């Protein structure tokens, strides 16, 4: 902690990116530093100690480390992997267009799509527990043979089996309910003092208390989850000759589900202020009624003595699953129509073709369907013992799951093939652009620098492929939505192999093999996500690559799906604002330096600072994705108006460093090639400073390797960074002395 006698300094507050770096790495205060070589092998020396005798206007280094907020423990990391579909649908609601006339409709559709994921989650667990185990396996002596842990239920009445096994999906609902209630903390502890009145929506991120909305959404989703379980049991019970009690309970279940849908379709009602206790009581009452109804339904299934229908699968389960897929397809189509209708048709004015929410929501739904289908098929494989996978697909779980696996594999293969074509077809143009930049940066290279120049050219070409990912993402999202639509063919009792053989001529066995292969591909992807999640928590290089999607998704508060991972910006942004305000009020000036996603946190923080605080703040961003990614993905929150307001808030004491070799970061206002500030009257034109990367193409004297290509790596030790720090400190009215650590 800084002592009371440390006031009057210029404090350089560094905020790291998604790498989850340690405080020593962020501050560049390791005891040793590399003086020659590269990352594979090099020379190191002890770093000189920083003096504590710096004057009153010296730079005091301070770091804000937020890397553990979105990650935490390994268990939480794995939870994020399995809750990834929920997170994607939650992100979709924040990707809505900037047009306010479409906001309520897009919110409603995204929240309904999020609700269908909860219903799918329950149906998948119920498909395993009630359909595969309770209805099929427990009625088969071959399946029970050698399974003493399961055979105790064999031969029991069907009602008893289903009532007991209904505890499994009920426990699964309770698990996600419990997980979604974390973290249990007081939001008031992280509120920023004296919030600035920013008209920009980005300034609201982390500022508002999302817990009341999350609590209402949680109550609605829990109610819908239990109502879905009730519906599965009641449809199975009433498949033969439904009794009046079964009909009445089914009607009550329908009313509960209708109430859940109605609440989600009224965003102004759901988004009311935290003080609206009546709405909170309504949602809690709905949840309690659903739980009580589940108890009644289970008891009804247990004690009802009417004979059960004789069917291969659980009665009513297949139509319910197919009906859910029809609903998801309808909602995705409606979302696409709304987005296209409110799209701005000016050239270059619409990021991601205006389909960002549709792309991400369809991807999340596709992933959830793949998860569910794979869970059901892997359990079916386990219960079928030695039955080949292809035969199990043809005779096992619901046909809708078979179509789901086929659709997922089709979307994945088509996207991979087209991505490969895009890589090949765009390589020449990207390399040509890279060669032009290399020729400008290194006009008279020595003859031996040829291989190094080609490496730099290829690095720039790879970095420019980021722009190609946007149409590929749109393509996959549309294919994923189409894959969800094709699952409805299962209602007709058709298998993909039969339909394709009849219409295309491809042998049915080949299609069945492809679906089986797709099932194992899904299993491999899930396993890869789990392993990647573990390594992302334990290993910095994995964290740097995998953390982009992770930190991007959990940056936004839970506004669509309450079971998605908690938002860390609700703490990080107010905490940064509080610290900056404290430093300024005690007499310091603050230089904010943010790398990668850290620049986004600082942008949201600057918009929340009171005007008198912003007068003593400067901003240095490097590797910033504000324009390149966030303006494309979240047009309602990051646009020219928001970026210009950030500049005005800090008195245009803002420098943004960017490199052509960076695949994530880039320019904010102008892609100027000169590393010096522009001389025009527009202050925004002086913000961006391009860094030549690498600094040279030949090894310096005393070294054996050329300077490395930095790409997206932080640049606190580079000369352009220190020059920018020196300039901003002078503009703050201080003197750029040597950095010192706070006491």
UniProtKB/TrEMBL annotation:
Keywords: Membrane, Transmembrane, Transmembrane helix. InterPro entries: AB_hydrolase_fold (IPR029058). The keyword Transmembrane helix applies. The chain crosses the membrane at residues 74-96, 108-130, 158-177, 219-239, 245-265, 286-303, 323-340, 352-373, 403-425, 469-493, 513-537. Residues 669-721 are annotated as: Disordered. This is Integral membrane protein. It comes from Micromonospora arida. The lineage of its organism: Bacteria, Bacillati, Actinomycetota, Actinomycetes, Micromonosporales.
């Amino acid at each position: 902690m800084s002592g009371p006698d440390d006031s009057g300094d210029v404090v350089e507050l560094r905020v790291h990116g998604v790498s989850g770096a340690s405080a020593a790495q962020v501050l560049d205060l390791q005891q040793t530093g590399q003086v020659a070589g590269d990352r594979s092998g090099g020379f190191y020396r002890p770093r000189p100690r920083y003096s504590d005798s710096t004057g009153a206007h010296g730079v005091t280094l301070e770091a804000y480390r937020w890397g553990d907020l979105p990650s935490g423990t390994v268990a939480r990391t794995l939870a994020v992997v399995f809750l990834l579909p929920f997170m994607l649908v939650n992100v979709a609601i924040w990707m809505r267009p900037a047009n306010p006339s479409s906001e309520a409709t897009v919110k409603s559709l995204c929240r309904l799509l999020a609700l269908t994921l909860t219903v799918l989650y329950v149906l998948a667990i119920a498909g395993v527990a009630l359909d595969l185990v309770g209805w099929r396996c427990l009625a088969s002596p071959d399946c029970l043979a050698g399974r003493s842990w399961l055979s105790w239920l064999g031969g029991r009445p069907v009602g008893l089996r289903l009532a007991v096994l209904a505890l499994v999906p009920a426990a699964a609902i309770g698990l996600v309910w419990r997980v979604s209630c974390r973290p249990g903390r007081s939001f008031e502890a992280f509120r920023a003092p004296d919030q600035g009145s920013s008209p920009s929506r980005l300034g609201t991120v982390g500022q508002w208390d999302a817990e009341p909305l999350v609590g209402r959404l949680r109550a609605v989703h829990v109610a819908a989850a239990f109502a879905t379980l009730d519906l599965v049991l009641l449809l199975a019970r009433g498949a033969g000759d439904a009794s009046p009690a079964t009909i009445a309970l089914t009607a009550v279940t329908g009313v509960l589900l209708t109430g859940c849908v109605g609440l989600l379709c009224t965003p102004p009602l759901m988004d009311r202020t935290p003080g609206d206790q009546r709405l909170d009581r309504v949602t809690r009452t709905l949840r309690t009624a659903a739980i009580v109804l589940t108890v009644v339904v289970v008891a009804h299934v247990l004690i009802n003595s009417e004979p059960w229908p004789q069917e291969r699968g659980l009665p009513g389960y297949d139509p319910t699953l197919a009906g859910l897929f029809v609903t998801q397809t309808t909602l995705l189509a409606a979302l696409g129509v709304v987005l296209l209708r409110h799209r701005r048709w000016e050239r270059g004015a619409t990021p991601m073709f205006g389909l960002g929410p549709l792309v991400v929501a369809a991807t999340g739904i596709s992933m959830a369907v793949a998860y569910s289908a794979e869970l059901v098929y892997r359990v079916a494989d386990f219960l079928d013992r030695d039955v080949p996978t292809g035969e199990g697909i043809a005779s096992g779980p619901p046909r809708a799951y078979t179509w789901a696996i086929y659709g997922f594999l089709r979307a994945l293969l088509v996207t991979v093939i087209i991505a490969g074509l895009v890589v090949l077809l765009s390589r020449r143009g990207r390399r040509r652009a890279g060669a032009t930049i290399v020729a400008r940066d290194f006009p008279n290279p020595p003859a031996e620098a040829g291989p190094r120049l080609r490496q730099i050219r290829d690095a720039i070409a790879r970095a420019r492929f980021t722009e190609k990912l946007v149409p590929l993402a749109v393509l996959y999202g549309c294919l994923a939505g189409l894959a969800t639509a094709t699952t409805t063919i299962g209602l007709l009792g058709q298998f993909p192999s039969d339909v394709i053989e009849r219409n295309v001529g491809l042998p049915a066995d080949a299609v069945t093999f492809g679906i089986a292969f797709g099932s194992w591909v899904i299993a491999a992807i899930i396993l890869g996500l789990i392993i990647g999640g573990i390594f992302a928590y334990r290993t910095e290089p994995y964290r740097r690559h995998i953390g982009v999607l992770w930190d991007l998704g959990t940056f936004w508060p839970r506004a669509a799906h309450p079971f998605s991972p908690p938002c860390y910006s609700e703490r990080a942004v107010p905490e940064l604002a509080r610290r900056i305000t404290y430093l300024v009020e005690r007499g310091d000036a603050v230089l904010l330096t943010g790398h990668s996603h850290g620049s986004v946190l600082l942008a949201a923080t600057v918009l929340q600072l009171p005007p008198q605080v912003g007068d003593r703040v400067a901003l240095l961003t490097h590797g910033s994705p504000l324009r390149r990614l966030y303006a494309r993905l979240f047009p309602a929150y990051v646009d020219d108006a928001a970026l210009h307001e950030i500049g005005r808030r800090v008195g245009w004491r803002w420098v943004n460093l960017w490199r052509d070799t960076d695949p994530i970061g880039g320019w904010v206002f102008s892609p100027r090639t000169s590393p010096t500030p522009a001389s025009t009257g527009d202050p925004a034109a002086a913000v961006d400073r391009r860094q030549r990367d690498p600094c040279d193409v030949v090894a310096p004297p005393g070294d054996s390797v050329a300077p490395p290509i930095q790409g997206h790596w932080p640049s606190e030790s580079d000369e352009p960074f220190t020059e920018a720090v020196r300039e901003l400190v002078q503009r703050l009215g201080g003197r750029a002395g040597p950095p010192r650590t706070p006491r």
